[in-house]
Amino acid sequence: MAEKTLKAILAKNSGYIPALVSMGLCKFLLNSSSDARNYLKQVIKNQYALEFAESFEKALLLMADYFISVNKFDLAEAELQKVLKHNASNVKAEELMGLIKEKERSYVDAA
Distance between CA atoms of 63 and 69, rounded to whole angstroms? Predict the structure, then answer.
């Protein structure tokens, strides 16, 4: 149901950032990670706008979480650095950064 609604929104405005992020999240939940990444890449390639700051951060965090799940820690870290550049107090980005360091067995950096 939500997917149909989001498709209708994106049919009217294909670049609407919150709908793209929501569609990416829906695709991740439906185990269609390649489609999800395509939607999130459309968001990430846009210029960071304060109007959609929360959606941009969510897209970057979702991509970082995906990269962590496939053991591409350098790509995940790059996405998390983008989040922290715009919002240094993002707790989820810091948490994922610590998770990466733990998986790399760099416990001092993780702390």
Answer: 10
| CA–CA gap between residue 101 and residue 56 (Å, rounded) | 24
Number of structural domains (the chain) is 1
Rounded to whole angstroms, the Cα distance separating 10 from 28 reads 18
| 106 against 77, higher pLDDT | 77
Please give the residue range of the domain that contains residue 60.
Answer: 2-110
Rounded-to-integer distance, Cα 77 and Cα 84, Å: 10
Long-range contact set of residues 84-88: C-beta below 8 Å, sequence gap at least 24: 86/48, 86/53, 86/56, 86/57, 87/53, 87/57
Helical residues (DSSP H) of the chain, grouped into ranges: 2-12, 17-29, 33-44, 53-69, 73-86, 91-103, 107-110
In whole angstroms, give the CA distance from residue 73 to residue 11: 34
Q: Is the pLDDT of residue 10 over 90?
A: no
Rg of the chain on CA atoms, in Å: 15
CATH of the domain at 65: 1.25.40.10
